[in-house]
Amino acid sequence: MLEKALKNSSKSFDFKDMTKQLEMDFSRLQQEIAEKKLPVIILLEGWGASGKGAVAGEMIKMLDPRFFRVYTTAAPSDTEKRFPMMKRHWEKIPEKGKITILDRSWYQDLAIAKMESGISDAEYKRRITAVNTFERQLNDDGYLIIKFFLHISKDEQKKRFGKLREDDATRWRVTETDKKRNKNYSEYFKQFDNMLEKTNTPYAQWRIIDTSDRKFTRFQVYNTLVSQITNALNIEHRSFAPEADNFTDFKLSSVDLSGKTLTRDKYESKLKSLQKDLARIHSKLYNSKIPVVILFEGWDAAGKGGAIKRLAATLDPRGYEAVPIAAPELHEFNRHYLWRFWGHLPKTGHITIFDRTWYGRVMVEPIEGITPRERAEQAYNEINEFERELTDSGVVIIKFWLQIDKDEQLRRFKERENDPFKKWKITSEDWRNREKWDEYEPLIERMIGLTSTAAAPWNVIEANDKLFARIKVLKTVEDRLDEAISQKAKADKKKSEKK
Amino acid sequence: MLEKALKNSSKSFDFKDMTKQLEMDFSRLQQEIAEKKLPVIILLEGWGASGKGAVAGEMIKMLDPRFFRVYTTAAPSDTEKRFPMMKRHWEKIPEKGKITILDRSWYQDLAIAKMESGISDAEYKRRITAVNTFERQLNDDGYLIIKFFLHISKDEQKKRFGKLREDDATRWRVTETDKKRNKNYSEYFKQFDNMLEKTNTPYAQWRIIDTSDRKFTRFQVYNTLVSQITNALNIEHRSFAPEADNFTDFKLSSVDLSGKTLTRDKYESKLKSLQKDLARIHSKLYNSKIPVVILFEGWDAAGKGGAIKRLAATLDPRGYEAVPIAAPELHEFNRHYLWRFWGHLPKTGHITIFDRTWYGRVMVEPIEGITPRERAEQAYNEINEFERELTDSGVVIIKFWLQIDKDEQLRRFKERENDPFKKWKITSEDWRNREKWDEYEPLIERMIGLTSTAAAPWNVIEANDKLFARIKVLKTVEDRLDEAISQKAKADKKKSEKK
Hints:
The structure is a homodimer. Helix content of chain A is about 50%, strand content about 10%. The first copy, chain A, is α/β, with parallel strands linked by helices. Chain A has 2 domains: about 1-235, Rossmann fold (3-Layer(aba) Sandwich); about 250-499, Rossmann fold. In chain A, the strands form 2 sheets. Chain A has a 5-stranded parallel beta sheet, with helices on both faces. A 5-stranded parallel beta sheet of chain A has the order 7-8-6-9-10, sandwiched between helices. Chain A starts with a helix and ends with a helix.
């Protein structure tokens, strides 16, 4: 891909006036970006000394600084390495109407990591998929992604390094790594080529630019920016979202709630022993460096809070975070809806407990008209991809649906209204939601049917009896974590034997 | 203070039943905290092995995990050290109706830092003031702060360390630092005592607890929690906010706007030379490790955006952040109003440019009824304290008020309405604000009068002519940064000569 792209370059023409016009266009388009609330990501990759910094610097001179943000991406820090790879990249996506400019980006975790951090072929492949999925999900949400790869030849690079080293003020910019990369230029060329090929998608195409001539570089950069932004603002947006490829037929009526009860005595004794076990497991988990997501969905008053409380009571408070999810605030609403969840993902050895989750996208959001039905429909597959990305990077996901019937809900609502200490828990919104029970039911069934994947299956909990439900939740967590810890121990053992 | 407090302890009584009752009360109070939207900070300090972790662990067993968050505070990381000291602590304050529990806190930056990081007496004193100001500002905003110091004797500590070291599972918890601290117990005792004395204030009193007996400890902890929370929920809140002790008489009418103009030619040539200078200064600034805050306030259409754009164009995009401030979102509104600004403060060598600021508190907020006038009145001093805290920790603050007259505003509003590219910049809200010009004027004068401090004076810019205003802004920034860099160089030289 690199070779072919480079053949088309030309240096024989003076592009100065045309560039000037394009710069003005770019500056003007910025206002349209703000008005039409288009979120834009511009990323710069390329060889060392190919001029990424200079191009970024020129670009922003045309922009209102309140509407863009520049980030530099280095190799991940030790803390960043403890999170799923894409977290640090997700966190930088702009709000609608704003621009993020990236001087190096997630592509540092691909070719460079492959060449220098010794990641396996399988891991490289996994990362390619993760990046393509990320860019496609952003595109499907209306983001415009403009990707530049700035190219120079081996000789040109060597010359530029030499020039930088001659000057006291710039000598520090040429590192040992840079020299090594220049020496092994042809291997890097192959690896970059492979990466560009594999991530050149209809929703995020690469623009490869020969930067040996500065004026021609500027012309090409602005020309690309103006044409891609103009297109995004004026041509109908094209989504590439595939449908979920996973379906299990599921009916809520198949959940047998009868007889799923526990006496208070039995509950107390089971609770005591489970809590002891889980405290022990949590410290093992920490040492095994396994990150865990435990999430709760269920009808209003199904007992999510009570179950979370019993679960949390077994855990070391420094090792978990409980995250209640309410309606999105403006800065959340103005970004891809998965953004706010990425920010709360656990690092290795830690647990995040979500009280309501990203599944709001396929339940309350279409019902309340917050998200159009067609758009919500895309979320089943997006969520599967999201969870897959997490489990692939080692996160254990435990999903609970707490099921009660309509009579039980009514009983609990009334109980809450009559209890001065619980009255605050029930609002007119709860009653309104209750009226929509029949609208929710098919969406819940569809959700469980489409998002019960092998890596992250739903656990449906019979919750008409709170005591029974809590014990089943704790037991499920215990079993799942026990299993994960022993699998991890086996895998670690295998790895160390190989060495 | 320590000795006196410890005399009152008692071990002769069985507190079990009373503690049980208090635990229930605490659990119930949590709902009232949520309902009445009381923000609560509970912090645990004390000797190593005094049981801070155990107390925190017990406390949270009674709480709904969705309403609290536990943080452990260690010595500041290298990155944290590059920010003003209180930033990492400000960031952890809870929203209204929620509880933050701190296992060690900002007090680690006091006594422990004094004993182990060799901070000077002057710096120690400064930090005491910073902490007291922080706690008073939180109190004045309605926060409840409960501070525990868990005490054990030298012998008891030695015994507990010994016990921990006997067990394989807990041996790692006793570090070399712990042993050293036990050896020098009496010196630490004196330092803790001094710290407790100096930070025992009417708005955040210390509760010193002898933890030699576990049951008595629990009783005292719950007793304190229940009584302090009950008080906070039921007794009228007492504010300790002092008035601003700084006043310069200032009238907007004294700003002479006439003749403050520049021709386009003069502007272009001045701009060119200033931008060159500032680019050079920015890289010096980075090497001098000076953090900078540049803030813009001014009438609607006074030209803040244009000035910021020209300023930003001179800077390395990796070294600054431009932060536009809009009306607070819910998670911001639910915390102390300074919270969201602390999060954007620059680290050493970096610049934050604020487009509108914390001064909204004393202009738009009282006028629009977002904050009651009496409460807004407290902000003058709070802001002076805030800015003082920043300048004391080395931040350079440059404040701009862009002044135009009413006719010029009208001209610009109309111009914007008639320009298809600028039309989006003008809304009905702008016209509404314009009607309140006469309400704003005295508040602006009061603001400049009360918050023009020696460390952070206002720069009033005559802005009827945009070109003139931009040049004056850039020139002011240049002069101020030049001065700061040479001062820093002198101070650094002095320091290195001392060594």
